[in-house]
């Protein structure tokens, strides 16, 4: 073979080994006592390695010890200081402090080093203590987790024996003794390849492939709330090597059946919902399972925490033959069993309702998916902090300019004053000011000017307040406490308070300009009610006179607690109270039976035994990842097809008569309908799972009654209807489409159900392809989608469902309040666009609801000019599937000819022929009109200027093109011209991209609010992320900055706490610079009287304590307790929110400039008033001596303390006892302190001159 071909072959092999990580678990051979379970790993970052279960591996895998702490005892000081000095302000004060040290620059600094180093040390110490406190608990948490104990099951060496008899047909047999033992191992010591046993209610210590559980079918139930926030239980299935008895002692049989088996899987990654692997070489006789664990399920076993089985499992000994009596020989031959995410138990999840499980560890420590997903949250900086940084830079520039000016002025003064002059015939010069030409008193020139410049920089360093960051952080922490303790933000339904997960964004809540909200679970209750359906062209709904309907209506309009309780306990799936549907089900109408059977078979719902605390329905508690599926399965149960078992790839249904009164306690009792007429069993052969891209799911099932095979398909109408057979009844299809339109207009969530009969050869051929795809280690999802597309065709329509998700209480009022406060409110939802939003969702409070055009898979805009305010004319279309065919349709809807003509002429989406212009997804091609959005944005702005009101609805198919770089600006302009925007059928990534567009391009402060894992991207991308604690878990809450129980609390969070925090914290920043300006600028004024000598007017003690003792407490009290208006006033007048939301950086700098000018003016009066009074010739002490510079400095400092505390008192709108106490103490305690430092200063004679004018007096 040529050398270059050998190189190419070697490169190809290397690439293949890079793309796959193989885990091989080699089980001890019965003939070799030295063998052990081993794991061979090939990954994209390791060469092949072997790890043994019963002896140290030759190469060490990633340790299972985790570390979430940031520091250790050895690196805390250095690492913490390094992180703190990432802040420019700390570096600035460190440089100033170094300049003040005589060790480095003797005689340079006009002030003592303690005036800067002291406060800097205090600031650094406070932050270090806070970090150490937080990290201490991280260490405790890590130690507790790493020291947790898990049971590892190990094989012992086995004694060999031989002899005849027994076994397969008289052949000679080898009798062996299989022994297993258990050992409690700390999590940190767990290794790849260990076989572990985890008990009920315990967390999994690593990523584990499930091999066997206490359930005979090999399934277990897992709670993944720590991973994805979902609280509903997930069903996991074993890899197919377990035993049927379900006894813990049979762990030895798991070892035996795993002989020479290996697990091949992907490299470690952070994808929680993906695992691609296969189990290869399982001993013959093991039942192979298709990767359909999503449909496997059974009633979970009762919680059993007893440890009685431990003793039975330890040292259990049982004989085992190589050849069994039935002729079965567990010799090796290759057999591949696909492993998917439903066979893997991830670290961080918890075992529930299962006594124990056995599994093989595949990923440990940092390789586990939990740790791969532990990334730092994005660092969010508030707008105020950005403004503050800009102000710091501006003040720094001002400080440099002033220092350079004063230094240059001094050189000019020296030049003028030190020249020889003639006075009364004698030469005269200020000889005592002559330079010594020794550092730092160098001779005049550039060197002297630069030295004086540095001295002034050091003297005026307090213009930037060193205590600002600590004060502001302390204030924010207290403000967060007020938010947590606000009783009006408490949600009694889920028993949760408002949560605060960051202390850096309080004031950002008061500057929000655009709210981007999810719909399901955020605006709605996420309690799905099965209310309508369409079967064979007939709509079924609850009887108008039904008991439940009237009860619901009365509860809606009543605040009585009893009525609310009755509404809560009522059976929400009102379709079950439809008399026509009940009658058709009782008479076994074939179409209705097929519809109900479809609902009961095509799903991933797991039935569990109901409890007294959670009774479920008819003794069953249906656990599903989707509330929609739970609603559909429960509705089918009430109508005669009750799901009772979903386990081992089989679904069992109880067929009974429909419950005549679903609201009755008897219907919902634990033993309801126990005398079922019959049962039906379906074997689930494959599951094509739902995904956001497919928008559908299907199952291939075999009916045990007659052996027939069928495909059950359900999903969004757009994708299911196009997969129907061309020979389908057109009349029924048109009727169903009309029903879907009606359901959508009512704001209901719709699904379409279809079915296809399959022949056995067709199923066998397809399953072969499906198995190959399910065992692929690369591109598995793509291959499975191709398999699904191949079989999901030529279906027959079964029916359509309509599920209702009601709005939460107070949502319309909350959004009306937010809009009145000047905020844009956009809805980003994964649901389809439907005109029902206009009536059911909070946009009904605006003109948007009456003037929005809802189109499928397209972009639409309705704009109109208001011709006369007395005759409002508006236009609303049907769905895209039934657009206006011509202008005659407009005239039919509006008999008034003038009105119809006006509408047709003013709607820019109606062309000259009267047809509706619809922009479909297909229109967005490389050749589509690039200027379309730009023109529509210009037209929309023109119509808006004329008084038009309109809304924009865009679906995900068109949104992906509107977000292109070439279209983003035009799309943003179009959105700005609209009163409201609804983005439908959007993916989580699109939600995040729309949020980033408004934040980066739109220049708006954005707030993302959602309740599910699909909202995490939007929440993290927004300036402020708010999570809703709802039924979809805690993923959104864990990723958020703030969390609330219901959407209606958002208005109070923003308008009350956000507005207060924005105003208070702005005052804190401006006041911090103001007070430092007042007392620092006096040094500038003193320079005019001291030959610009850069000498301090205050003593060191006064400078060092100014920010800490005399001004800090009033500032904190003002920022914590001040209220310009009461909370109820803000809620009743939301326009007040615009005061803070419209604040921009320019406005902030202008305010800071006014505060600074005022501070300089106040400092001028404070200093020169003291000089004029104490520096006059007639002024003297009690012993007749003139007042010295120190005395004037103390007097000026006293005036400064009085002025700055008076300033905060004047700015206070709401006085409390704490404000009074802190302001009073800050002023009163200064006077005894002044006496003490005055006596101390006089005793050491810091100032060489007796009179303030001595430095300027003529000799």
UniProtKB/TrEMBL annotation:
Acidic residues composition bias: residue spans: 302-312
Pfam families linked: Cation_ATPase, PhoLip_ATPase_C, PhoLip_ATPase_N
Domain P-type ATPase N-terminal, chain residue ranges per copy: 58-117
Subcellular location: Membrane
MF terms in GO: ATP binding; ATP hydrolysis activity; ATPase-coupled intramembrane lipid transporter activity; magnesium ion binding
Gly residues bias spans: 161-171
InterPro entries: ATPase_P-typ_cyto_dom_N, ATPase_P-typ_P_site, ATPase_P-typ_TM_dom_sf, ATPase_P-typ_transduc_dom_A_sf, HAD-like_sf, HAD_sf, P-type_ATPase_IV, P-type_ATPase_N
EC supergroup of this enzyme: translocase
P-type ATPase C-terminal domain: residues covered: 1037-1244
Record-level GO BP terms: phospholipid translocation
EC number(s) recorded for this UniProt protein: 7.6.2.1
A single cellular component GO annotation: plasma membrane
Region (Disordered) residue spans: 156-182, 299-319
Superkingdom assignment: Eukaryota
Record has Magnesium as a keyword: yes
Catalyzed reactions: ATP + H2O + phospholipidSide 1 = ADP + phosphate + phospholipidSide 2
Keyword check for RNA-binding: no
Membrane topology per record: Multi-pass membrane protein
Entry annotation: catalytic residues: 518
Low complexity: bias regions: 172-182
Predominant location: membrane
SUPFAM superfamilies: Calcium ATPase, transduction domain A, Calcium ATPase, transmembrane domain M, HAD-like, Metal cation-transporting ATPase, ATP-binding domain N
Residues that, per the record, bind ATP: 518-520, 629, 690, 714, 749, 829-831, 985, 991, 1014-1015
Protein family per UniProt: Belongs to the cation transport ATPase (P-type) (TC 3.A.3) family. Type IV subfamily.
Protein's UniProt name: Phospholipid-transporting ATPase
Source organism per UniProt: Micromonas pusilla (strain CCMP1545)
Lineage: Eukaryota, Viridiplantae, Chlorophyta, Mamiellophyceae, Mamiellales
């Amino acid at each position: 073979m040529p050398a270059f071909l050998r190189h190419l072959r070697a490169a190809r092999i290397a690439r293949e080994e890079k793309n796959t990580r193989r885990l091989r678990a080699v089980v001890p051979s019965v003939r070799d006592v030295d063998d052990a379970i081993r794991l061979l790993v090939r990954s994209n970052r390791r060469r092949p390695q072997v790890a043994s279960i019963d002896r140290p591996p030759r190469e060490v895998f990633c340790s299972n010890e985790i570390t979430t702490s940031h520091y250790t005892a050895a690196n805390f000081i250095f690492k913490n200081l390094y992180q703190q000095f990432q802040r420019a302000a700390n570096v600035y004060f460190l440089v100033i402090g170094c300049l003040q040290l005589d060790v480095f620059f003797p005689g340079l600094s006009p002030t003592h080093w303690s005036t800067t180093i002291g406060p800097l040390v205090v600031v650094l110490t406070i932050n270090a203590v806070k970090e150490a406190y937080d990290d201490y608990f991280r260490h405790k948490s890590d130690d507790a987790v790493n020291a947790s104990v898990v049971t590892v099951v190990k094989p012992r060496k086995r004694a060999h024996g031989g002899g005849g008899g027994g076994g397969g047909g008289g052949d000679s047999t080898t009798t062996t003794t299989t022994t297993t033992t258990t050992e409690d191992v700390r999590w940190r010591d767990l290794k790849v390849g260990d076989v572990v046993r985890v008990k009920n209610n315990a967390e999994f210590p690593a990523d584990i492939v499930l091999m066997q559980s206490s359930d005979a079918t090999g399934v277990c139930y897992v709670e993944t709330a720590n991973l994805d926030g979902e609280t509903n239980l997930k069903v996991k299935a074993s890899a197919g090597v377990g035993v049927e008895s379900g006894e813990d002692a049979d762990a030895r049989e798991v070892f035996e059946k795993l002989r020479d088996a290996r697990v091949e899987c992907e490299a470690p990654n952070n994808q929680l919902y993906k695992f691609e692997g296969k189990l290869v070489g399982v001993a013959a006789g093991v039942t192979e399972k298709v990767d359909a664990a999503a449909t496997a399920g059974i009633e979970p076993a009762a919680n059993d925490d007893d440890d009685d089985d431990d003793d039975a499992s330890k040292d259990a000994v049982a004989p085992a033959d190589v050849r069994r009596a039935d002729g079965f020989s567990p010799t090796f031959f290759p057999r591949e069993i696909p492993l998917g995410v439903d066979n893997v138990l991830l670290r961080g999840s918890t075992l529930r309702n299962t006594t124990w499980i056995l599994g093989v560890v595949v990923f440990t420590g940092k390789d586990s998916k939990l740790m791969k997903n532990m990334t730092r949250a994005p660092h969010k900086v508030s707008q105020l902090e950005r403004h503050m940084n800009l102000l710091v830079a501006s003040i720094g520039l001002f400080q440099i300019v002033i220092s350079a000016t004063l230094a240059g002025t001094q050189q000019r003064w020296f030049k003028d004053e030190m020249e020889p002059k003639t006075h009364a015939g004698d030469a005269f010069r200020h000889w005592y000011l002559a330079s010594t030409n020794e550092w730092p008193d160098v001779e005049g020139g550039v060197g002297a000017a630069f030295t004086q410049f540095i001295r002034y920089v050091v003297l005026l360093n307090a213009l930037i307040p060193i205590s600002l960051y600590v004060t502001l952080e302390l204030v924010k922490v207290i403000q967060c406490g007020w938010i947590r303790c606000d009783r009006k933000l408490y949600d009694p339904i889920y028993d949760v308070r408002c949560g605060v997960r960051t202390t850096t964004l309080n004031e950002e809540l008061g500057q929000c300009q655009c709210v981007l909200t999810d719909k399901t679970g955020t605006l709605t209750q996420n309690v799905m009610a099965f209310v309508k359906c369409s079967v064979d062209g007939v709509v079924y709904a609850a009887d108008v006179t039904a008991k439940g309907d009237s009860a619901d209506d009365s509860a809606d309009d009543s605040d009585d607690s009893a009525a609310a309780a009755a509404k809560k306990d009522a059976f929400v799936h009102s379709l079950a109270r439809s008399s026509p549907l009940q009658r058709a089900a009782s008479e076994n109408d074939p179409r209705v039976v097929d519809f109900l059977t479809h609902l009961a078979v095509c799903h991933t719902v797991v039935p569990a035994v109901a409890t007294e605390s959670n009774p479920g329905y008819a003794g069953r508690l249906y656990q599903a990842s989707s509330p929609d599926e739970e609603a559909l399965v429960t509705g089918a149960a009430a109508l005669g097809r009750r799901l009772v078992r979903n386990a081992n790839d089989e679904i069992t249904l109880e067929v009974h008569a429909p419950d005549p009164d679903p609201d009755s306690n008897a219907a919902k009792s634990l033993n309801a309908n126990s005398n079922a007429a019959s049962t039906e069993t379906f074997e689930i052969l494959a599951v094509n799972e739902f995904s956001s891209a497919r928008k559908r799911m299907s199952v291939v099932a075999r009916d045990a009654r007659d052996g027939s095979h069928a495909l059950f398909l359900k999903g969004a109408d757009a994708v299911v209807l196009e997969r129907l057979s061309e020979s389908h009844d057109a009349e029924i299809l048109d009727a169903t489409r009309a029903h879907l339109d009606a359901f959508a207009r009512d704001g209901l969530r719709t699904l379409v159900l279809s079915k296809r009969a399959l022949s056995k050869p067709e199923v066998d051929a397809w399953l072969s392809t499906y198995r190959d795809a399910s065992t692929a280690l690369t591109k598995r999802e793509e291959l499975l989608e191709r398999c699904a597309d191949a079989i999901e065709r030529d279906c027959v329509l079964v029916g359509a469902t309509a599920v209702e998700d009601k709005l939460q209480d107070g949502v319309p009022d909350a959004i009306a309040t937010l809009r009145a406060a000047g905020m844009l409110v956009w809805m980003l939802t994964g649901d389809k666009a439907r005109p029902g939003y206009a009536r059911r969702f909070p946009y009904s409070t605006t003109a948007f609801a009456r003037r929005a055009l809802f189109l499928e898979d397209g972009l639409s805009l309705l704009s109109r000019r208001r011709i006369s305010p007395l005759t409002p004319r508006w236009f609303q279309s049907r769905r895209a599937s039934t657009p206006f065919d011509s202008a005659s349709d407009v005239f039919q809807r509006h008999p008034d000819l003038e009105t119809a003509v006006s509408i047709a002429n003013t709607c820019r989406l109606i062309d000259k022929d009267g047809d509706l212009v619809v922009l479909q997804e297909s229109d967005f091609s490389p050749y589509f009109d690039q200027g379309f959005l730009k023109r529509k944005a210009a037209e929309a702005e023109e119509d808006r200027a004329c008084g038009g009101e309109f809304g924009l609805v865009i679906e995900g198919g068109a949104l992906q093109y509107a977000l292109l770089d070439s279209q983003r600006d035009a799309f943003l302009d179009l959105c700005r011209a609209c009163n409201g925007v609804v983005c439908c059928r959007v993916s989580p990534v699109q939600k995040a991209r729309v949020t980033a567009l408004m934040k980066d391009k739109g220049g708006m402060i954005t707030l993302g609010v959602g309740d599910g894992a699909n909202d995490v991207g939007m929440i993290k991308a927004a300036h402020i992320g708010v999570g809703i604690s709802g039924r979809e878990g805690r993923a959104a809450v864990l990723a958020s900055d703030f969390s609330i129980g219901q959407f209606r609390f958002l208005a109070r969070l923003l308008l009350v706490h956000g507005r207060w925090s924005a105003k208070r914290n702005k005052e804190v920043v401006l006041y911090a610079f103001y007070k430092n300006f007042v007392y620092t600028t006096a040094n500038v004024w003193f320079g005019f009287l001291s030959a610009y000598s850069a000498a301090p007017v205050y003593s060191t003690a006064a400078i060092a304590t100014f920010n800490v003792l005399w001004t800090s407490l009033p500032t904190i009290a003002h920022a914590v307790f001040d209220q310009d208006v009461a909370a109820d006033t803000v809620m009743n007048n939301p326009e007040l929110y615009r005061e803070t939301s419209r604040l921009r950086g320019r406005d902030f700098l202008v305010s800071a400039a006014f505060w600074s000018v005022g501070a300089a003016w106040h400092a001028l009066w404070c200093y020169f008033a003291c000089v004029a009074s104490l520096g006059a010739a007639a002024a003297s002490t009690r012993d007749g001596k003139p007042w010295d510079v120190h005395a004037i400095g103390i007097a000026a400092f006293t005036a400064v303390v009085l002025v700055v505390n008076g300033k905060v008192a004047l700015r206070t709108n709401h006085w409390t006892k704490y404000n009074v106490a802190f302001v009073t103490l800050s002023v009163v305690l200064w006077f005894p302190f002044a006496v003490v430092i005055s006596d101390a200063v006089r005793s050491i004679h810091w100032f060489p001159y007796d009179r303030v004018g001595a430095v300027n007096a003529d000799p």
